[in-house]
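To whoever is on call:

I kicked off a structure prediction for a single chain this morning and the downstream step that reads the tokens threw a length-mismatch warning. I double-checked the sequence; it's 199 residues and nothing unusual in it as far as I can see. Pasting both halves so you can look.
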Amino acid sequence: MARLQNPIQTPSSLGQRGKRRLLFALLVCALLPVFGFVLAPVLFTVTDPPQKADVIVLLGGEDGSRVGAASALFKAGWAPHLIITGEANMYRRELIQSGVPATAIWVDADAHSTAENAIFSIRIMRAHQCQSALIVTSWYHTRRAFNCFRHYAPGFVFYAQPTYPSDAVAKNWGSPVPSILKEYPKTVWYWLRYGICPF
């Protein structure tokens, strides 16, 4: 009976060409996170100057910089109402503590994804006859979030308002690097699953 050969090649059994390929693959794997992080601000950030709008939509999650940004926009008079989508109870409490009247806050406590953030917020906007919104979320999340809102309400007007955590926020919430790198597969998945083109 013929003896089966081991199909797995070890580095010692590879030729010079095979070793170069292995080293190249390892180098690519090592550099992907670095390049992914460096390119993220260009690929994922959408920003607009603040504009008068019917409502501010505050997306829950990730870090504590979003509440402060949404509160500042409200106090500056850019919109008369706020929608909180996701993390509703905690964010509502923080907004009220920052001086936003409870009567100005509308809450969606059911969203568990960016797509649902958009779908449920747009439902609230339609119920209150709002057709424009400032979208407040972390800078690396703005493109996917902004595109979701435009996808589900093409006749509405949206303005992206990215947030950037301070050193104090970063200390309390941890490094955003894992979330930034996750945006790559999430963006591709939203394109394939929901037809939301990233660019």
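Update from on-call: the warning came from a stale cache, not from the record. Cleared it. Sanity check on the structure: The chain has one domain: 55-194.
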